[in-house]
């Protein structure tokens, strides 16, 4: 009698092979533009004059005038309230929804999804611009403060806080909920890929606290990093004025490099921004690795006769009080979000038709955005399968993420000067191909997918295909959709590479419309047409209910020990 031949695990060499496209993409579209940016920061000149080496003169000039420090502190001040929303308001709402049970939590996920898919920085800023009209009233009247240098900084801070409340709170809650789930369901490595069992006594306190602390720290770092690159709303609302009182770091880089055609000072600001972002990215990855952060997926369990569903059993503790608190918290969030979003809602209802919402502008917006997302997330997914699923360095494979860490939070701004120069040198300026994002790998998607593949690989006795690849594939699609939304709402890159009206994206067309002399109001909803919002909301709601609600985030402090044989 012979025993069945065990399934042979894929070799670690395949893990290295799967990571090669991401390493190549990082080298071409992240490392080389970074080196080019640093080199340009030591140059004088730009488009209009010949460049020559000046050493650190650009940095000395920035330090002498102090403009970069003023811009840095003001930029950070814009992120204070959104940061508090992410680390104070969001966890409270997440706890309320988690304790309320399944249906309030899922209703909350759908409501939060609406705040995400309707957010457009340029559209929101255009709506607030209507507050500058003489007959403006209500919350939009805050925009009147943008007229004077003394009141403009405070007014812009309040507008940014109100405009981003819904999307910041929604994204943060979606990050906290899986960490809270670690306290209501535990994982037994002996059960095929994470069979659901009741959490061990006392695991909810320490385990959830550990996961929530790590997630909260990562969210705080992310909010600072994203805030440092704020560009769209400031450009639309104030363009850095009046009297440069609202100059942001990204706006200062844009002014030097592209308005004044001085690549050296612009690249110097980009380099300083990139150094800060690089440090934040490295710190974030170290926290992830040291805490042994992991993401896994609860299976769909069909209860046997006379038995309750495991997940439902874990949630039976949510009584009427818990449900009432969760529903009340959700109602309060929706009410506050509607008040904060009312200038945008009112602007959408009053929007006239314009070229910003035309079919050609939508094609320019969404085709490059979706194609760029498919490529960058697809490459990241291959690397995640290799690093997280096949573990080429064994238990320490997550340390490979340090190779990508300096660019974890880098957006189009810090590399904009170098990428623009590259596109110009190959003759693609003012072409449709130039609208495609200059990025071959999404490092944030790589991080999330690696942690998911790691969690799935640790909790399955299936083969690599059935235990890691298939369960993680939906997350790759979800992240591709998220990156496509981010790409589509970007203003900076299309503004740099497309000057012909036929190549305007919706965001650029909105900006041009706001700067024109037309008597018609801005087309606030051009960047979020109804058909796109409807399709995105259906897709996101389905993803929330069928997949994202099953995610669990664990750390080394929230994993229950394996039961004794």
Description of the structure:
The protein has about 575 residues and is mainly alpha-helical. It contains 20 helices and six strands. Strands 1-2 form a two-stranded antiparallel sheet. A two-stranded antiparallel ribbon has the order 3-4. It has a two-stranded antiparallel sheet with strand order 5-6. The longest helix has about 30 residues, at about 360-390. The two termini are about 30 Å apart.
Give the structure's gist in a few sentences:
By secondary structure, the protein is mostly helical.
Sequence-ordered SSE layout with sheet pairings:
Elements: H1 12-40, E1 43-44, E2 52-53, H2 57-65, H3 67-78, H4 80-100, H5 102-117, H6 121-129, H7 152-181, E3 186-188, E4 195-197, H8 203-228, H9 232-237, H10 249-259, H11 263-290, E5 294-297, H12 310-314, H13 320-349, H14 359-389, H15 416-425, H16 443-458, H17 464-488, H18 492-497, H19 506-515, H20 530-546, E6 551-554
Antiparallel strand pairs: 1-2, 3-4, 5-6
Helix pairs in contact: 1-11, 1-14, 2-11, 4-5, 4-7, 4-8, 4-13, 5-7, 5-13, 5-20, 6-13, 7-8, 7-13, 8-11, 10-11, 14-16, 14-17, 16-17
Helix content: 55-70%
Mean pLDDT value: 87
User: What is the multimeric organization of the chains shown?
Assistant: single chain
Number of helices: 20
- Our measurement of the CA-to-CA distance between the termini, rounded to an integer number of angstroms, reads 28 Å
Taking pLDDT < 50 over at least 5 consecutive residues as the criterion, the unreliable ranges are: 1-7, 186-204, 302-317, 560-565
Largest sheet entry: 2 strands, antiparallel
Q: How would you sum up the global shape?
A: globular
- Our estimate of the beta-strand percent is under 5%
Structural class determined from secondary elements = mainly alpha
> How do the helices and strands follow one another from N- to C-terminus?
HEEHHHHHHEEHHHHEHHHHHHHHHE
DSSP strand count: 6
Order of the strands making up the biggest sheet: 1-2
Structural Rg:
24 Å
């Amino acid at each position: 009698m012979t025993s069945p031949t065990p399934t042979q695990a894929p070799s670690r060499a395949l893990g290295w092979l799967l990571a090669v496209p991401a390493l190549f993409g990082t080298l071409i579209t992240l490392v080389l533009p970074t080196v080019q940016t640093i080199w340009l920061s030591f140059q004088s000149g730009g488009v209009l004059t010949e460049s020559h080496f000046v050493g650190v003169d650009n940095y000395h000039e920035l330090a002498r005038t102090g403009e970069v420090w003023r811009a840095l502190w003001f930029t950070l001040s814009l992120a204070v309230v959104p940061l508090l929303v992410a680390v104070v308001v969001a966890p409270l709402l997440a706890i309320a929804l988690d304790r309320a049970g399944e249906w309030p939590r899922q209703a909350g996920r759908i409501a939060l999804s609406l705040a995400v898919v309707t957010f457009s920085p340029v559209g929101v800023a255009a709506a607030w611009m209507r507050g500058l009209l003489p007959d403006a009233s209500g919350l939009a009247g805050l925009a009147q403060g943008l007229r004077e240098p003394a009141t403009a900084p405070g007014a812009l801070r309040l507008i940014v806080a109100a405009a981003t409340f819904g999307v910041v709170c929604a994204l943060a809650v979606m990050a906290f909920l899986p960490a809270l789930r670690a306290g209501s369901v535990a994982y037994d490595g002996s059960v095929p890929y994470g069979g659901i069992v009741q959490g061990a006594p006392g695991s909810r306190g320490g385990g959830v606290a550990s996961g929530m602390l790590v997630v909260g720290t990562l969210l705080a770092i992310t909010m600072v990093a994203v805030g440092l690159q704020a560009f769209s709303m400031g450009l639309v609302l104030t363009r850095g004025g009046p009297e440069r009182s609202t100059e942001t770091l990204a706006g200062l880089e844009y002014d030097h490099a592209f308005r004044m055609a001085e690549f050296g000072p612009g690249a110097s600001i980009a380099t300083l921004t990139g150094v800060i972002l690089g440090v934040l990215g490295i710190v974030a990855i170290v926290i992830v690795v040291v805490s042994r952060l992991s993401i896994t997926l609860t299976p769909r369990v069909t209860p046997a006769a006379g038995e309750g569903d495991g997940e439902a059993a874990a949630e039976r503790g949510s009584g009427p009080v818990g449900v009432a608190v969760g529903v009340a918290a959700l109602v309060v969030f929706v009410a506050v979000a509607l008040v904060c979003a009312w200038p945008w809602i009112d602007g959408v209802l009053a929007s006239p038709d314009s070229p910003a919402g035309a079919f050609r502008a939508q094609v320019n917006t969404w085709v490059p955005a979706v194609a760029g997302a498919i490529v960058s997330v697809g490459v990241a997914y291959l690397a995640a399968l290799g690093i997280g699923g096949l573990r080429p360095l064994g238990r320490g494979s997550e340390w490979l993420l340090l190779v990508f860490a300096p660019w974890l939070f880098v957006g189009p701004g810090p590399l904009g000067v170098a990428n623009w120069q590259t596109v110009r040198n190959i003759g693609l300026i003012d072409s449709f191909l130039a609208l495609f994002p200059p990025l071959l790998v999404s490092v944030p998607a790589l991080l999330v997918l690696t942690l998911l593949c790691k969690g799935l690989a640790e909790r399955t006795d299936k083969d690599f295909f059935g235990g890691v690849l298939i369960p993680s594939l939906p997350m790759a699609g979800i992240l591709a959709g998220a990156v496509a939304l981010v790409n589509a709402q970007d203003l900076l890159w299309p503004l740099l590479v497309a000057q012909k009206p036929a190549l305007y994206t919706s965001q650029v067309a909105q900006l041009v419309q706001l700067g024109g002399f037309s008597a018609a109001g801005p087309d606030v909803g051009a960047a979020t047409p109804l058909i796109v919002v409807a399709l995105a909301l259906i897709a996101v709601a389905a993803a929330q209910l069928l997949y994202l609600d099953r995610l669990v985030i664990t750390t080394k402090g929230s994993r229950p020990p394996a039961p004794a044989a």
